[in-house]
Design brief:
Elements lengths: L6 H5 L4 H9 L11 H5 L4 H9 L8 E5 L2 E2 L15 H9 L3 E4 L7 H14 L7 E4 L53
Antiparallel strand pairs: 1-2, 1-3, 3-4
Length: about 190
């Protein structure tokens, strides 16, 4: 299996043209692969453990959530230097939280290069966050974003649910997410 270096590698076997047409029409596009190791190579567990355990990522770039509820930082960082506490993160993970790392490309060159490739092909600025979910509870309740999203599953198994488009072109702030009602997944 080849590594993912460019946008076309990420979306294969879908062509860039197919993706760009779907993207411009705001149609959901699901790309499945039988080569899970390809995406796993973007962010191996060893890298995740290093980022969270060696003080590489500051606590200001990490958020711990469960079902849209934020866990207070004092539960997983030291008091003085505001460094992450790996032991506390492990205990929270055992309880089924999700850990979000903002702007992970700043710490993982392969992801930064892929984001640059996506920017060049789509003509839009790209930001990359990492979500690590443990257990069955998701990071978020059903919601919509005010930006386009490309979700790439890297490890494990997850049931993804999409509920259509409640607001075709939502603008920030996304207050409509409060009490958002959704029907059956599409």
């Amino acid at each position: 299996a080849s590594m993912i270096r460019r946008f076309k590698d990420l979306i294969a076997p879908v062509s860039e043209q197919q993706f760009l047409v779907s993207f411009s029409r705001k149609n959901r596009l699901v790309v499945k692969t039988t080569q899970r190791e390809r995406t796993a190579s973007l962010l191996p567990w060893a890298t995740i453990n290093h980022l969270l355990g060696a003080g590489v990522v500051s606590t200001s770039k990490v958020r711990v959530v469960v079902l849209s509820n934020t866990i207070p930082e004092l539960m997983y960082r030291t008091d003085k230097k505001a460094r992450l506490r790996p032991d506390a993160l492990h205990q929270l993970a055992a309880q089924g939280v999700s850990i979000r790392i903002y702007k992970i490309g700043k710490h993982v060159p392969a992801i930064a290069n892929l984001a640059d490739s996506i920017e060049r092909r789509t003509g839009h600025r790209v930001g990359v966050n990492c979500y690590i979910t443990f257990g069955k509870a998701g990071a978020f309740k059903p919601h919509y974003d005010t930006h386009d999203v490309i979700a790439v599953q890297i490890h494990g198994a997850k049931r993804w649910r999409g509920y259509g488009i409640p607001i075709p072109y939502p603008l920030p702030p996304d207050d409509g997410n409060i009490g958002l009602t959704v029907g059956n997944p599409v």
